[in-house]
Amino acid sequence: RDFNECCAQCSEVNWGLTDGGRFYCRSCHNVTERTREVVNTDFILNTRIQTISKGLRKQKKNDGGCEWYVCEGFQLILKKQAEALEALGVCPQMKDEILCNFWRCYLQKSQQAYCNRPAVETAKALPVWDSSTDVESEPERSSLLHLLSLSESEGDLQTDCSFASSTSKVSESTSVCSGSVDGHLYLMKNQKEKLRMTMPMTLSFCYMALLWLREPMTLSDLLRFVVEGHIPYLNVFQHFPEKMKLCGLDLKIFCVESWPVYEEVYNKMLELAAFLDLPRFPDITDSCFLHPDMLCMKYLMEANLPDELHNWTCRVVKKICIGDADFLTLVPGNKSKRKVKYDVLAAAVIVVVLKLLFLLDDHYEWLLSDFAEERNKNNKEGGPYFEFKKWYTVIKCCLDVEQKRLDEERAKYLWRCEKPLFYSAKKKSRVLKRRQMVVNLQNQFGKLSGSVQPAEKPNPSSFQLSWSEENTDGSCFHGQSLKGILQEKCGVLTAVNPDYWLCTVKLCTEKLCGHLAHYREVDFPQSYHFVLRLFSFLLRIQPSYIHEEVCVIEHKLFNKKLCKKPKYSTVLRK
Amino acid sequence: SSCEHKLNFKKSKEVCLSYIQDAMLQKQWKRAAEFLTFYVESLEKDFSRQDVNPSEMIWRIGAEILWHHSHGSVKEFNSFIEQMKILSVKRYLKVCLEHVFHLLCHGLIDEAYQTLSLAESWRFGEQTAVQDKEIKLIQAYRGLLDYYSWSKKKNILLEYGECQDGFDDLSVEQEMHSCFRKAAVNLKEIIKVPGVWDLFVKCYVDLLEFYGAHNEARQVLNEYAYNSKFPANPNAHVYLYEFLKRHGESKKSLISALKILHDIVPSHELMIDFNTMLQKSKKRKNRRLGLEVIFAALDYAGWKENVKAWSCLARQVKQIVISEKHLDWIKQEWNSRKDWWPAFHFSRYLAKRNWQKNESLSYEKALVAGILLGKECKYFKYVSHQGCKAQMKRFRVLKKFVNKHSLVYLRISG
């Protein structure tokens, strides 16, 4: 933009930017060596960029709005989300480099921008880049790699979010039933092959970027922060600039009416990674937060279980080789490999370890607990032995309280915001009146209820439950010892419990029913259900997901035994 | 509590509503108000597919909470209800009516009247059948309030009429007549519609009677009582009976009015009057009916200790026994009761209790028991013994009487 020199070849001043960040002359397609460094990360209304020849973006008639495209809206949203993540402690690279580049790559692939013929309705679109060989000579993949590499590059990382979309001629086709120019297009069915952008997908983008950077935030953490309001998602359109008016079909695109669902966000992320032709993600090694050894430690702490259990989780992880970088790292597009949900996996490992040590068949764990209690009486030196019964009492109480609080929060969840939405200008006054009435009623009954409006959100925290060893009431079990339920055999500490029961003898075919295992509470012991419920609460997902993962782990763990014995046997000797 | 971690708008509001309902059932008004603040945004959905949409919910719940909440004042309620009126055009009239009820409950008659007048003049689009009905109702209540004004003015006139000079008399009287006209028009209209309009009918009849339009009044009451389109309503017959009695109508018409009442509500308090009237009748069938009526009334627990009722029965039984005619009447009535009346009315426990609390009651009952069950029955024995011990003359007479007719019970029980 600041580049006003005459082109060396044709002496015109008509510059555009290549993907590589170099200026090129649009008249004669001469690519210069000049690159552009931009620091400005604000969303810039497309009034300034590359409009020397085109003139300003058309203002809409009455309401002071301007033309805008749906993807611009999403771009704004992603930016807001990235900023929020940064505020939560995620490194700035996520916003400035990774997410931004993922996004631009997406735009290019889905032909919404940075490409030959952006997928907008008008046939008269002048291509921004025409068949210049300079630009397209680089294979897309390598340029993308170039962009995505974490190493410093020659300042070609652009962060201004401008759009080299097609010409102003598009304005004639502006639909009346959406504030955005291409709102109606967006909802047309044939967009499916190009992976149409949706609100949940913004979270997929975020998670993908987090995963690329191996940030210490799991998908369940991310979604929880969204629901708690720390990451813009619901009503994020409030932050659109005044000039970007939303109405009509835009509502269907940007208006969120439900909490994001783990499976949906996760699967979309996989689809997205494949769509963008991303290479193998950076390796998840055992020093990463997402590695099962690390996550298990975190969850054990949160679940108020003894630290000593970590040894066991590590053993299981090692035994079934789920700690390998090859297993854990995401390779997009590789359909044969089962994708890893780190949080679910770690939780499932813990469940399996609990089953190994306590059996959890509604009998044995209580007997074992009494046994440990007995041993505890004679235990003078060292810390107390872990007793399942005590742990259960404390955790059940806590879980019930938290679940109740969560249920009330669900009931009190507010979906609407100050900025009202309406389908058309005709409905605007009605919507505004309604909004006013709602606010009045809220005030009136709020006063009656005597409660102060809860204005502050709770501080975001990675740990939902915390237990302190300083509590003298003995409600913290971290430091307790497992000796009460272990015995020495051949110099090695093994579990007293000799048995194990498999959740399922045979795994389902995922292709047929979508899952590898199914869960019905009544079919399983209550202790098992309790443990599932605990992690279901921490991760905010259905118990059946954890159960499924448990089944998979068990089948890996007892693979040999399962293969050997063709006979049906639900109780195994370890 | 559940392991549900999914949530959408609709479900979220459903859950919220269930919390409100729980709180209301437990009369925790503050808590209900709290959750209602989170529920009201459901008004902002553009459409609702549910049968009862949020706006109606909010109206009803909000009104209930405000009514019960200790801090809810009339002003608060007014401001709330005005918003509810705006919310739904279809419900405007209903909401107005509710508003009026609340004002009346707070004793704000004038404000209620104003609200009714305002509502009456409201029209929206084409008059639908439902709106018609609701407008009628509004007019009827206005008519009722007009009646109330009329009644006040009438009392003023009656009390102070003589003391005041001509002018004041006249103006009050004129106002009174104007109230009458307004009231009469509306009340007349509403009672044409099949339904239960007890209060309206009473007021209208009162007006008509005052102005001497007795025939019309009778017609109105007859319609109200006998028109099959109207739901069966014991009060209608009571009103008719009272009217007929007031105007000295024939016994025949009185009896026919009460007969229906007996059929509908055998335990009605007027049954005593009815029995008394029937006993005196010359017609045999009336006297027969009288016995039936009094037995039927005493089948009900509420009458167990009613001295008048027992004395009616005793009198009639005594009379039959003395005349030695129509013992079969008693037999017929006793037939269906002999299995359970003894335990119900004539147990030894009751004998003691009745004697202690109300000796006239025990006297009457003892007579009936002695005849129906014989002199050896527990009730009679105990009461007559006590009575004779206390040297009460009538108990000695009673004892003699029952002894004399001691075999009647055998003939009755068959």
From TrEMBL, chain A:
<dbReference type="InterPro" id="IPR048538">
    <property type="entry name" value="Rrn7_cyclin_C"/>
</dbReference>
<dbReference type="InterPro" id="IPR021752">
    <property type="entry name" value="TF_Rrn7_Zf"/>
</dbReference>
<protein>
    <recommendedName>
        <fullName>TATA box-binding protein-associated factor RNA polymerase I subunit B</fullName>
    </recommendedName>
</protein>
<keyword id="KW-0539">Nucleus</keyword>
<dbReference type="Pfam" id="PF11781">
    <property type="entry name" value="Zn_ribbon_RRN7"/>
</dbReference>
<dbReference type="InterPro" id="IPR033599">
    <property type="entry name" value="TAF1B/Rrn7"/>
</dbReference>
<keyword id="KW-0863">Zinc-finger</keyword>
<dbReference type="InterPro" id="IPR048540">
    <property type="entry name" value="Rrn7_cyclin_N"/>
</dbReference>
<dbReference type="GO" id="GO:0008270">
    <property type="term" value="F:zinc ion binding"/>
</dbReference>
<dbReference type="Pfam" id="PF20644">
    <property type="entry name" value="Rrn7_cyclin_N"/>
</dbReference>
<feature type="domain" description="Rrn7/TAF1B N-terminal cyclin">
    <location>
        <begin position="74"/>
        <end position="241"/>
    </location>
</feature>
<keyword id="KW-0805">Transcription regulation</keyword>
<keyword id="KW-0804">Transcription</keyword>
<dbReference type="GO" id="GO:0042790">
    <property type="term" value="P:nucleolar large rRNA transcription by RNA polymerase I"/>
</dbReference>
<dbReference type="GO" id="GO:0001164">
    <property type="term" value="F:RNA polymerase I core promoter sequence-specific DNA binding"/>
</dbReference>
<dbReference type="GO" id="GO:0005668">
    <property type="term" value="C:RNA polymerase transcription factor SL1 complex"/>
</dbReference>
<dbReference type="GO" id="GO:0070860">
    <property type="term" value="C:RNA polymerase I core factor complex"/>
</dbReference>
<keyword id="KW-0238">DNA-binding</keyword>
<keyword id="KW-0479">Metal-binding</keyword>
<keyword id="KW-0862">Zinc</keyword>
<feature type="domain" description="RRN7-type">
    <location>
        <begin position="2"/>
        <end position="33"/>
    </location>
</feature>
<comment type="similarity">
    <text>Belongs to the RRN7/TAF1B family.</text>
</comment>
From TrEMBL, chain B:
<dbReference type="InterPro" id="IPR052669">
    <property type="entry name" value="SL1/TIF-IB_Component"/>
</dbReference>
<dbReference type="Pfam" id="PF14929">
    <property type="entry name" value="TAF1_subA"/>
</dbReference>
<dbReference type="GO" id="GO:0006360">
    <property type="term" value="P:transcription by RNA polymerase I"/>
</dbReference>
<dbReference type="InterPro" id="IPR039495">
    <property type="entry name" value="TAF1A"/>
</dbReference>
<protein>
    <submittedName>
        <fullName>TAF1A polymerase</fullName>
    </submittedName>
</protein>
<dbReference type="GO" id="GO:0000120">
    <property type="term" value="C:RNA polymerase I transcription regulator complex"/>
</dbReference>
